[in-house]
Amino acid sequence: MRVSYQYRLKPDKEQVAKIEKWLEMLRCQYNYLLGQRFDWWETHRTAVNSCPLICHLPELSDRPTYFSQKQRLTQLKKDRPWYKEVQSQVLQDCVKRVDLAFQRWLRGDKNGKKSGKPRFKGKGRYRTILFPQVKPDCIQGDYITLPKFKTIRLIKHRPLPDGFKIKTAQVTRKADGYYLTLSLEDISVPESTINIVPTSENTLGIDLGLKDFLVTSEGEKVEIPQFYRKGQDRLKKLQQKVSRRQKGSKRYQKAVKQLGKHHQKVARQRKDFHFNTIKSILSKGDVIAHEKLNIKGLAKTKLAKSIYDAGWGTFLSRLAVKAENAGQLTVEVNPKNTSQNCSGCGKKVPKKLSERIHNCPHCGLSIDRDENAAINIRNLAAGISVSSKAQSRTEAQAGAAEKLQPYSVGIGCG
C-alpha cells in the first residue's frame, strides 16, 4: 500500500538558491532532450518508400530512447562540469519525464488516450525535483536530509505512519514556497479487494449539476460554492497588474507571485470542499453511483467556466480513491435519459433544461428533476428495473384490493 504525505519546507537562503539553480539546469536539460526527440521525429517520420523520386534524404541516425539519452548523461557531465552538482538520479528522472511526455503524445497511455504535443518549458516552468531514493532515516525530528543537500527544516504537522518506509522524496516549488512530498509504502498492508454487490439498500446515487453541486437519491442537496467566480474581481485586478508591469522586472515577478497565490487559494478552497463532500457521501452508502460524464465535451459549451469551476472530473477521481481506501465502491452508469425517465414508472417524460421539477403524467410522480435523476442512477447501478418494480407495485395494490373486497361487500349487505 502506498500513501503520500506533504510537508512545508523552510530552507535557508543558500538552500533556496541551490534549489533554484537545480531547477534551472533541469529545465535546460529537459528542453535539450525534448529537442533531440523532435529533431529525429521531423527527419525520420516519413518512410523511405513514401518519399518523392527527387528529394534530399537526411543522414539517418539512431532514434533517441530513454536508455540512449540516459547513457549520454555521463558525457554531459564531462562537457558541462556544472551538472556534476546535480544528483545523478535526479537527472535520470528528467530523462524519464521527457520519454513519458513523448510516448503519451505518440502512443497514448495504457488506456490508449493520447496527450497533446509536449512543449518546451519556459523560465520558471520546471518546478519539481524528484529523489527516487532516500535513506530510511532521512527525517530526524523537524529536519530532512536529501542527497547533496544539507539538512532542510520542515514543518512536520503530522507524524509518519508506523510501518511505512519512505520510497521517494519530491521537492516542489509553489506560489507560496517549497513543499516536500513523501511517497510511503507498507508491504504488509495488502491491496484492498472490494467484494460489494450493489443493491437498493447499500447504493447511493448522486447527480452532479451546476444549480446544485450534487443531489443524492435520498433528496439531500449540496450547494455549489463557485470559488472561481467569487474571486473573479480580485483575479481581474491582479491580471491587470501583471500586464502593466515590464516583463522580467522585480515588480513584474512580484505581481506574478500574487496572481499565483490567488489561483492557489482557489484550488485549495475547491480541494477542501471536495474532500468534505466526499466524507459526507461515503458515510451514507457502501456503493456510490454516478454518471459517466464526458466532461471535455460538456466544457466545449457556453457552460465551460462553470463546469471547470465545479471541478467534476477531479471530484470523481478523488471520490474513487477515497472510496477504495475505505473499502467502498464507486460505479459509473450510462447517463442516457437519466433525467428524462421517470424513477417511478420508467416512462420517458421529455423536458427542457429550464424545467426543474419532474412531473410524470403517467404515474403522477412529482419530485425535483435532479433527485429523479439520482434515483435513476442508483437503480441502474443496483440493476433495478423500474418497469418490474412498477409491475410488482401494481400487483401488490391489486392483491390488497382483493383482500378488502369481501369486507366491503359484507358491510354493504348488513
Task: Throw out a few tags for this protein.
414 residues, alpha+beta, Nucleotidyltransferase, domain 5, seven-stranded antiparallel beta sheet, five-stranded mixed beta sheet, metal-binding, Transposase_put_HTH, DNA binding
Could you characterize what this model shows?
It is a single chain. This protein folds into 2 domains: 2-47 and 59-185, no CATH class; 203-383, Nucleotidyltransferase, domain 5, CATH 3.30.420. The protein contains 12 helices and 14 strands. The protein has helices at residues 13-44, 66-71, 73-79, 88-106, 227-230, 232-244, 250-282, 295-298, 304-310, 312-325, 369-382, 386-413, and strands at 2-10, 128-131, 139-140, 143-145, 151-155, 165-174, 177-185, 203-208, 212-216, 221-223, 287-291, 329-333, 357-359, 366-368. A hairpin with a 5-residue loop joins strand 4 (143-145) and strand 5.
Number of strands: 14
CATH class of the largest domain: Alpha Beta
The arrangement of helices and strands along the chain is: EHHHHEEEEEEEEEHHHEHHHEEEHH
Give the overall pLDDT as a whole number: 86
What is the alpha-carbon Rg in Å?
29 Å
Sum up the overall morphology in one term.
globular
Count of individual domains: 2
N- to C-terminal distance:
76 Å
pLDDT < 50 runs, ≥5 residues: 387-414
CATH architecture of the largest domain: 2-Layer Sandwich
- What is the number of helical segments per DSSP (H or I, 4+ residues)? 12
What is the percentage of strand-forming residues? 15-25%
Fraction of residues in helix: 40-55%
Q: What is the spatial order of strands in the main beta sheet?
A: 2-6-7-1-5-4-3
Structural class, from helix and strand content?
Answer: alpha+beta
